[in-house]
């Protein structure tokens, strides 16, 4: 596949201009671009500029407020609830994570639940904001219901990702960032484009029967919680998705479960909301609230080194430490540019034309 | 199977007497019994009185200190590190959870990492301690290495469980408590007793090939992280197990990864420890540090009711809310008694004889 390649500078300038065109302030545009582009840099192509026109459509549908007044509505020494005022999640999330970091500085840890927000890009980006402060970062979000819990044929949860970023000393940080389903929706989109089948255990039909059709969700099917089936622990994946949903939305006052508004602008949000917008949850833990930071980080080096050098199954070179593949992507793409799917590139060209911007 | 049945009162009196015989104070014995028996009540038979003689053997091997001086060695407003002084995890864990609850009362949340402890029974028991205070409780622990991360043939992690207990209003609480592997080790023990095969995806042979032999671990095999294989997300299960290990042990100063001492007394702990004992991590979040407790709990009722009434796959009566099966067990067994495997019952009889106690 000969995909067009764009520099980070080019893509970020274009995205910045688009955010300005929909009314974002310079400051918010810069924050949004950093959140958005981090996905492209880290190889999570489904969550980067490929979604830019989707965000614009949500703004056109008046579901995204480009001039949000993001504010704390309740707080204690180690917690806060933030009202995102329908802002872009790409802006609201870093704002909330900064509050978590500031709380952690004072109280040892900081935990921020967010309501009235929108999709926030990749969870890992927000969690990683804690790293330069010698803190552990956590980020999670609920999302449009696409997942049927174990035994259900109804879609009641989103792919509800969890990210955890943990600093090390000379080793790169441990950065886990994963959907609580067997496979993220972005993986299905790739199979759809390639017209390939999905492995069994990723998707079920509308009656709950196994399916390998990556288009099954259009026909009433559903994604499946991590574990694939009851015998292999899908009830545990359901626990994880439920945990993310409750912390992100029931704690904050956002919509939860089947009430979470759809990401796509052509589907209307549920008529009887149980909260405001979608919800996120962030955590920051100061490492030296537990033990001296240097001591902790040297033990993390030891942890990472020991695991990375594990004896592997024949044919596998090494055990992969969470965050390794994304970091390699980030280094390479920052240097050599970001390849975009041809459809995504032409979609961005159309978006540019709309605003008189050349892509 | 005609298993002997014992009342809660009988088993708890016996366990209490055993703990006194090994030198526990009255107070510690009472706390240990409550932790231990909660597993039997909730139907997690592998973690209850079936382990009592194992704890005694660890005491005989001088790896359990029955008179621990459990103390805070470092703290901030929302965090603490506790040194368990080699005490029974059954005693150390509730002590640490009380500290988390007290911290949450002041700071909104409380987070306690524990080093120098031993196995703590079921994680769910400790997490549930938060519920009467209108708090969310979390508990996790690392454990003896039995699990090979994705692509590894070495056992580097324990089954590292996570428990999350969330209060509701008129509905019973949401209580998730699960090993971060496809199947917990207790499930293998049951299959071993029944001489049955395990499903593929639970266990691998020492070279990493799939196995259905529940005795495979005796031959160098390993349990597998939740997800079963790379294609079905076992790298996510690895992330979860790693998270538990790092929070429980690298934050606290306990042993982590392959250095965690084995539960069985006949295997010596690693000669080059990287910390002290095994580690746990606890959290308590005051619900009203986020929104009024009544409001939160009524939304939890709505969440639970909506999920429980989901349309199900043909043949399945209803979606199971985490904690439902264990609560039903607890209600029944408190009334009608606890059935024990015949081998466990005779093992307890032998244990009683050793101490001059009748079982």
What can you tell me about this protein's structure?
The structure is a homodimer of 359-residue chains. The first copy, chain A, has 359 residues and is of the alpha+beta class. The first copy, chain A, folds into two domains: 5-182 and 224-292 and 326-355, Malate/L-lactate/L-sulpholactate dehydrogenase, NADPH binding domain (Ribosomal Protein S8, Chain: A, domain 1); 183-223, Hypothetical oxidoreductase yiak, domain 3 (Wheat Germ Agglutinin (Isolectin 2), domain 1). Chain A is 37% helix and 16% strand. Chain A has helices at residues 8-21, 26-41, 52-60, 89-107, 123-128, 185-194, 234-250, 293-308, 324-336, 342-355; strands at residues 5-6, 71-76, 79-83, 109-117, 135-141, 162-166, 174-178, 203-204, 210-211, 222-223, 278-286, 338-339. In chain A, the strands form three sheets. Chain A has a seven-stranded mixed beta sheet with strand order 2-3-4-11-5-6-7. Chain A has a three-stranded antiparallel beta sheet with strand order 9-8-10, with no helix packed on it. In chain A, strands 1-12 form a two-stranded antiparallel ribbon. In chain A, a hairpin with a 5-residue loop joins strand 8 and strand 9. In chain A, helix 1 (8-21) crosses helix 2 (26-41) and helix 2 (26-41) crosses helix 4. The model of chain A has no long low-confidence stretch (mean pLDDT 96). At the A-B interface, strand 2, strand 4, strand 7, helix 7 and helix 8 of A face strand 2, strand 4, strand 7, helix 7 and helix 8 of B.
């Amino acid at each position: 596949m000969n995909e067009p390649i764009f520099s980070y500078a080019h893509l970020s300038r274009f995205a910045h201009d688009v955010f300005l065109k929909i009314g974002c302030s310079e400051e918010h545009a810069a924050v949004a671009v950093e959140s958005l582009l981090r996905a492209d840099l880290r190889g999570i192509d489904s969550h980067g500029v490929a979604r830019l026109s989707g965000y614009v459509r949500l703004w056109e549908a008046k579901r995204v407020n480009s001039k949000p007044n993001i504010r704390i509505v309740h707080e204690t020494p180690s917690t806060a609830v933030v009202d995102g005022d329908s802002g872009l999640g790409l802006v609201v999330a870093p704002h909330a994570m900064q509050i978590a970091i500031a709380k952690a500085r004072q109280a040892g840890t900081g935990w921020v639940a967010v309501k009235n927000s929108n999709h926030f890009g990749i969870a890992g980006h927000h969690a990683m904001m804690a790293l330069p402060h010698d803190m552990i970062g956590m980020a999670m979000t609920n999302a449009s219901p696409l997942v049927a819990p174990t035994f259900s044929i109804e879609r009641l949860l989103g792919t509800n990702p969890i990210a955890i970023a943990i600093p090390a000393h000379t080793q790169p940080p441990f950065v886990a960032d994963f959907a609580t389903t067997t496979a993220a929706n972005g993986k299905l989109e790739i199979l759809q484009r390639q017209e390939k089948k999905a492995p069994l255990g990723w998707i079920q039909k509308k009656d709950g029967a196994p399916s390998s059709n990556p288009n099954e969700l259009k026909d009433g099917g559903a994604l499946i919680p991590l574990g694939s089936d009851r015998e292999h622990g899908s009830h545990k994946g359901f626990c994880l998705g439920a945990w993310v949903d409750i912390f992100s939305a029931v704690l904050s006052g956002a919509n939860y479960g089947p009430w979470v508004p759809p990401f796509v602008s052509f589907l209307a949000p549920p008529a009887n909301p149980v909260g405001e917008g979608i919800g996120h949850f962030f955590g920051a833990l100061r490492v030296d609230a537990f033990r001296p930071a240097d001591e902790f980080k040297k033990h993390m080096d030891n942890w990472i080194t020991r695991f990375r050098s594990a004896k592997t199954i024949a044919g596998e070179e090494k055990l992969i430490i969470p965050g390794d593949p994304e970091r390699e992507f980030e280094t390479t793409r920052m240097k050599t540019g970001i390849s975009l799917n041809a459809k995504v590139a032409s979609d961005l060209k159309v978006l540019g034309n709309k605003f008189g911007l050349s892509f």
